[in-house]
Amino acid sequence: MTANATAQLKLPNIKTELPGPKAKEVVEKDHRYVSPSYTRSYPLVIKRGWGAIIEDVDGNLFLDFNAGVAVLATGHAHPEIVKTIAEQAADFVHIAGADYYYPQLSDLAEKLEKETPGDHPKRVHFGNSGAEAVETAIKVAMFHRRRQKFIAFFGSFHGRTLGALSMTSSKSAQRLGFGRAALDVTHIPYPNYKRYTGPLTEEEYGIECARVIEDRLFKTTCPADEVAGIIVEPVQGEGGYLVPPASFMKELRRICDETGIVLICDEVQAGMGRTGKLWAVEHHDVVPDVICSAKGIASGVPLSATIARADMMNWHVGAHASTFGGNPVAIAASLKTFELLHGGLLQNCADMGERMMAGLRKLQTKYSKYILDVRGRGLMIGVEFVSDINTRKADFELRNQIEQECFLRGLIVLGCGESSIRFSPPFVIDEEQVDCALRIFDESIAAGLQHRGHPFFEPDYNETGG
Distances in Å between the alpha carbon of 144 and those of 100, 161, 309, 411? Predict the structure, then answer.
C-alpha cells in the first residue's frame, strides 16, 4: 500500500482479537527484556502511524486520541516534519551544543523568547525531556535566589529524576523504595472546584487555594525568604487534567512578586498549543519567571527547553549543560512544529476542542450518575468518573474498564488522576474523527458499566508521565 493510500485511512478498523498474534509475541519478549517499571495500560504494539491513526503489527487500525501522551501535536509522520528531519540528518545529526555552536540552536532560542509570555529578555537551556526541563528550572531558581525550599501541589507530575521527583506528587508508586526526597518541597492542594462544597465562588476559591501559602506555609514550615520557587502546572496533567480558576494563577504571581520567589510554570504537557493557546498560562493572563517545555515541542523528537528571565539565568560557564540537549535534528523539528502550529494547527486544536467538549458534555448528561466532570481547554480534555454522583466517590475501576473498552474498539486514550480519562489527540484531527471518538467513547462507557469488575489485561497500573 502506498503512503498516499495509507493516509486516506483515518478511522479505526479492528481485524483481529486484541492483542493479535504478532502483538502477543512482542509483549512476551518485552516482559522478558524490558524494565518492569514501564507502565502499559493495554497491549498496543505499533507498527506505524499517520495523522491520528496507528497501525499495529497485526494490521489493526486505531484512532489515536492520546498522541503519545500529548507529544505528537502535528500527528504521526507529518510529511513536513519527516522531510525536515531527513534534511537535517543529511547535514549533521549531532554536535554537542554545550561545546560547539550551530545556528539552529540560537534560532530556536530566539523564537522561544518571542513566543513565550512577557516582553522581557530571556535565555533558554535545552535538554531532552520534561524531567530535565524541570531539573534545570530547579537549579535556576536555587542559583538565582540562593534559597533551598520549594512549594508544589498535590497531584502534580514533574518527572521521575530525583530532583523532579521531589516536586512530583502524583502517585505513591513513583516514590516507593527511593527513600527521602532529594529536595525540601512542601505540597499543598491544587484547586478542584468540582469537589469543593463550601460557599465560595470559583474565583474566590482559587484565591483561597493560593493564599494557603501565605496564611499557613509562610507562618509555619516555609519561611518566605527561604523559598526559592513555586512550581505549578497551569492545567494539571497527570493529576486529572484539572483547570484552575484564573484567580489562582494571578494570586500565585502576586505572592511571588511580593516575596522574591521564582514562579515556575511546568508547561511540559499543557504547552505548545495543547490548550488552544501556545501556552496554557496565557489563559490566565499571567507571566511566569520560568517556563518548562517538552513533549509537543518537537513533534516526537526528544527535546526540552527551559525558558527563564535573562537576569535569572545568569549562571557561570559550566553550571549546567547537556550533551544531547538541543540536538540539531530535534531543533529542526521544533522550528517546523512552530511553523505548522501557526499555519493552522493551533486554530484547529481550538475548534476541534470545542466540538469534542460539546459532545462529551452531551455524554455527561446521558451518564449523569457516573460522570462528575468534563473539563479542559483546547485538546486537553478530562472526563472524571464516580461510582455515584451524590457521593462523588472516584471510580478507578470503572475508569479502567472504559479505557480497555475504548482500546478494544480502536480508540486510544489513557487515564489520569484518580478516575479520569484524558483526551489529548493530535491537532490534525477533523470533525469525522472527533465524532467517531465520541461514538466509541459512548459505547465504551455503556460496556464498562455493564462489565465493571472484570478487567481484560494485566498489569493495569494506569499511570504515565513525561
Answer: 26, 22, 11, 46
